[in-house]
Amino acid sequence: MKKLLIAFLAIFSLNGPAFAGTLDDILDRGTIRVGFDAGYQPFEMVNKKGEYIGFDIDFAKQLAKAMGVKVEFVNTAWDGIIPALLTKKFDIIMGGMTVTSQRNLRVNFADPYIIIGQTIVMRKELAGTIKKPRDLNKPQYKLAVKLGTTGHEAAKRYFPKAQIFEFETQDDAKLEVLNGKVDAFVYDLPYNSIFASQNEGRVAFIAEPFTYEPLAWAVKKNDADFLNWLNNFQRQVRGDGTYDRMYKKWFESDRWLTTLK
Asked: To which protein family does this belong (predicted)?
């Protein structure tokens, strides 16, 4: 028994920790790889210089700074973002992902960092007819959604009688409203609020969210050390004023709009 124990310890010391997780990988690599789908205002976007900017981007930079590592951004199509995480294309999803029970079967979530909900932007001609989201639940209405999002799921659940049209990107979906090809766009409050303000007089906006959606960072299953670090990091930035400064920059000001492509 003593010889077996000595042999095991020798193997362990040669190969390093048997259960090294993502946190150890990041520190060894010296870089944290962050996955998202650019274009989700004001969370992750591309400016005129071709740089990634946004609330999540700033959060990722602060996170990397706290770890003492560099940050690498990995822009990924939304419908493949969880598979990409699971196959180690990056270490964490920081891309405005809503916590859902379905997603939680495949990934673990850190504590939510912001709460949003689904809203409606519609053709301006419908402003007098559609008073609340439920009014759209009729066969004559055409709704645009982004494929694979909680807006997509909410549209199917809340508007089963309406016609639902799926699009790969939020930009494609909202253009259908502006061009009069669909009646409304179902999407997250921050994005739709910006969309409506940029097109005042062309669209109508029902700003009251009709869903409750906590957004959180996603990591692979069985990675308790990484989750623990992320939650403690978030408590720190909330306590030292960093979170408030970032929030004001991206949600209480629209100066960043002029920097976009």
From this structure: Belongs to the bacterial solute-binding protein 3 family.
For residue 100 the two structure tokens come to 């859902």
Q: What DSSP assignment string belongs to 47-58?
A: BTTS-EESHHHH
| Residue whose entry in the numeric block shows the structure tokens 């199509």 | 77
List of domains in the chain = 9-115+214-259 (3.40.190.10), 118-211 (3.40.190.10)
pLDDT tens-place string over residues 162-220: 999 999 999 999 999 999 999 999 999 999 999 999 999 999 999 999 999 999 999 99
Peptide bond into 42 cis (omega under 30): yes
The Cα 139–Cα 183 span in angstroms is: 12
The radius of gyration of the chain from alpha carbons, rounded to an integer in Å, stands at: 21
Question: Measured between alpha carbons, how far is residue 204 from residues 116, 145, 194 in Å?
Answer: 19, 17, 12
Stretch (H or E) spanning 16: none
Q: Which residue has 């180690």 as its token pair?
A: 88
Contact between 93 and 230 (Cβ < 8 Å): no
Indicate the residue type of 194: I
Give the three-state DSSP class for 216: coil
